[in-house]
């Protein structure tokens, strides 16, 4: 402890003392709380201690230097490095699509919120996997139309828009946007001619499918020439790039399509140049035969067309979605009115047929056919609905009419049937009286109450013995 004569030393008397805190009393009735652990060893209640306080300037400077060094590190790590602005570039342009690319997104110490593509100032879509994806392909555009595109990067450090680019889609005569991926072309000369044509059209090609690949060109789906021979015989497996082209819906065409575009100096429809079609065929004939058919068409087996003799009905071997042919009305023999015609008859009825037709016309009218023995039998055909069927007419006998009281006056004129005109009663002129009202059945309780009011007579006692 400092000496008593030191000006920076203060004298205190230890008052209350416990394990954690001590009460110190000063000379001028100052009372302070002081930690017991800082008291000299052996100090108890009533001990007199001197306390001196000094400022440590060297330690203050050291701690201040440490503080500002930490602030500089924070500023250099989080304050100076900011996310990089995306640099949007055009990779490829076709008649209906545009492929854009940009460098990998640099966020520094910020966190990504979204990366969106804008077309003509309107948000089009969000870029999937923005931290690894560096390109996108926009399809479904109009031919020979100008568009503007921009990327908007949103982070926790702010919003960073990319540069605005303007691009116009190609016309049909501009073939520089073609980018093909070559598969297995069995003819080397044909392959070289196709590459030479692409070079003159300022188009591009590669051996791998990329994001801007527009067509997959091959003559067989197999990966190697050996596989192509196997594919023709036992069905060799298709190549990986061919399978990717099918998954990405990239058209698979033959090299003849490239030669046709080069010769015509414009984009040629690919319908007649699909893999498996005969090249240089008009659209809609052989070229369309390679397109997949629906299940209903594929399962429909059309028989070969053969000439049929005149006046002879033929039934096709397949069912078609066509309306039923109109049937000619046939006269129903008298006393045989039925809702169905051509009903099969029993053998007894056929044998009992004794009517002999005069000629073939009568046989056709009577629906008869001649057997091997020369007898006429009724034709047996499946029952069909007679569309001309009508219910039999009402009998010619006059109906029984209710008696009508005769009116006084001159006699009424007679009708064609011999009846008086006023005696004919139409159904609308007959007045039908309403049914009599039906009383509701009285309940048992009502009967019992009402029966109590009736006179039941004298009561007689009957002995039990």
TrEMBL record:
<dbReference type="GO" id="GO:0006893">
    <property type="term" value="P:Golgi to plasma membrane transport"/>
</dbReference>
<dbReference type="Pfam" id="PF16892">
    <property type="entry name" value="CHS5_N"/>
</dbReference>
<dbReference type="GO" id="GO:0034044">
    <property type="term" value="C:exomer complex"/>
</dbReference>
<feature type="domain" description="BRCT">
    <location>
        <begin position="198"/>
        <end position="275"/>
    </location>
</feature>
<dbReference type="InterPro" id="IPR036116">
    <property type="entry name" value="FN3_sf"/>
</dbReference>
<dbReference type="GO" id="GO:0046983">
    <property type="term" value="F:protein dimerization activity"/>
</dbReference>
<feature type="region of interest" description="Disordered">
    <location>
        <begin position="284"/>
        <end position="465"/>
    </location>
</feature>
<feature type="compositionally biased region" description="Polar residues">
    <location>
        <begin position="338"/>
        <end position="352"/>
    </location>
</feature>
<feature type="compositionally biased region" description="Basic and acidic residues">
    <location>
        <begin position="363"/>
        <end position="377"/>
    </location>
</feature>
<dbReference type="InterPro" id="IPR013783">
    <property type="entry name" value="Ig-like_fold"/>
</dbReference>
<dbReference type="InterPro" id="IPR036420">
    <property type="entry name" value="BRCT_dom_sf"/>
</dbReference>
<dbReference type="InterPro" id="IPR052827">
    <property type="entry name" value="CHS_Export/Cell_Fusion_Reg"/>
</dbReference>
<dbReference type="InterPro" id="IPR001357">
    <property type="entry name" value="BRCT_dom"/>
</dbReference>
<dbReference type="Pfam" id="PF16893">
    <property type="entry name" value="fn3_2"/>
</dbReference>
<feature type="compositionally biased region" description="Polar residues">
    <location>
        <begin position="284"/>
        <end position="302"/>
    </location>
</feature>
<dbReference type="InterPro" id="IPR031673">
    <property type="entry name" value="Chs5_N"/>
</dbReference>
<dbReference type="InterPro" id="IPR031669">
    <property type="entry name" value="Fn3_2"/>
</dbReference>
<feature type="compositionally biased region" description="Low complexity">
    <location>
        <begin position="323"/>
        <end position="337"/>
    </location>
</feature>
<dbReference type="GO" id="GO:0005802">
    <property type="term" value="C:trans-Golgi network"/>
</dbReference>
<dbReference type="Pfam" id="PF00533">
    <property type="entry name" value="BRCT"/>
</dbReference>
<dbReference type="GO" id="GO:0000747">
    <property type="term" value="P:conjugation with cellular fusion"/>
</dbReference>
<feature type="domain" description="Fibronectin type-III">
    <location>
        <begin position="84"/>
        <end position="176"/>
    </location>
</feature>
<protein>
    <recommendedName>
        <fullName>Chitin biosynthesis protein</fullName>
    </recommendedName>
</protein>
<dbReference type="InterPro" id="IPR003961">
    <property type="entry name" value="FN3_dom"/>
</dbReference>
<feature type="compositionally biased region" description="Pro residues">
    <location>
        <begin position="392"/>
        <end position="413"/>
    </location>
</feature>
<feature type="compositionally biased region" description="Acidic residues">
    <location>
        <begin position="353"/>
        <end position="362"/>
    </location>
</feature>
């Amino acid at each position: 402890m400092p000496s008593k004569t030191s000006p920076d030393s203060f004298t205190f008397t230890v008052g209350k003392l416990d394990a954690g805190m001590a009460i110190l009393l000063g000379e001028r009735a100052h009372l302070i709380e002081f930690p017991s652990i800082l008291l000299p060893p052996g100090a108890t209640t009533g001990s007199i201690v001197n306390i001196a306080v000094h400022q440590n300037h060297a330690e203050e400077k050291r701690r201040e230097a440490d503080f500002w060094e930490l602030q500089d590190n924070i500023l250099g790590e989080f304050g100076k490095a900011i996310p990089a602005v995306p640099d949007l570039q055009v990779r490829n342009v076709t008649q209906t699509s545009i492929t854009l690319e940009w460098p990998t997104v640099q966020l520094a110490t910020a966190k990504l919120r979204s990366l969106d593509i804008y077309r003509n100032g309107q948000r089009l879509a969000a870029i999937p996997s923005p931290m690894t994806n560096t390109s996108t392909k926009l399809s479904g555009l109009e031919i020979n139309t100008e568009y503007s595109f921009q990327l908007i990067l949103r982070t926790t450090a702010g919003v960073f828009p990319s540069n605005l680019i303007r691009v116009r889609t190609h016309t049909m005569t501009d073939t520089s946007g073609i980018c093909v991926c070559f598969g297995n072309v069995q003819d080397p000369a044909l392959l070289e001619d196709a590459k030479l044509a692409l070079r003159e059209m300022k188009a591009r090609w590669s051996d791998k499918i990329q994001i801007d690949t527009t067509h997959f060109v091959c003559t067989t789906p197999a990966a190697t020439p050996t596989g192509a021979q196997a594919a023709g015989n036992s069905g060799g497996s298709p190549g990986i790039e061919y399978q990717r082209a099918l998954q990405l819906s990239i058209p698979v065409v033959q090299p003849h399509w490239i030669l046709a575009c080069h010769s015509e100096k414009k984009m040629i429809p690919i319908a007649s140049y699909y893999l498996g079609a005969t090249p240089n065929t008009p659209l809609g004939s052989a070229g369309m035969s390679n397109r997949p058919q629906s299940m209903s068409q594929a399962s429909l087996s059309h028989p070969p067309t053969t000439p049929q003799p005149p006046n002879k009905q033929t039934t096709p071997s397949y069912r078609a979605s066509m309306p039923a042919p109109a049937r000619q009305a046939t006269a129903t023999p008298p006393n045989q009115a039925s809702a169905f015609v051509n009903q099969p008859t029993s053998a007894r009825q056929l044998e009992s047929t004794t009517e002999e037709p005069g000629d073939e016309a009568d046989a056709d009218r009577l629906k008869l056919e001649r057997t091997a023995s020369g007898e006429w039998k009724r034709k047996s055909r499946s029952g069909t609905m007679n569309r001309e069927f009508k219910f039999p007419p009402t009998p010619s006998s006059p109906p029984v009419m209710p008696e009508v009281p005769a009116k006084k006056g001159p006699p009424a004129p007679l009708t064609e049937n011999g009846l008086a005109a006023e005696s004919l009663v139409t159904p609308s002129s007959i007045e039908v009286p309403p049914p009599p009202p039906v009383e509701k059945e009285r309940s048992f309780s009502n009967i019992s109450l009402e029966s109590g009011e009736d006179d039941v007579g004298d009561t007689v006692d009957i002995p039990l013995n």
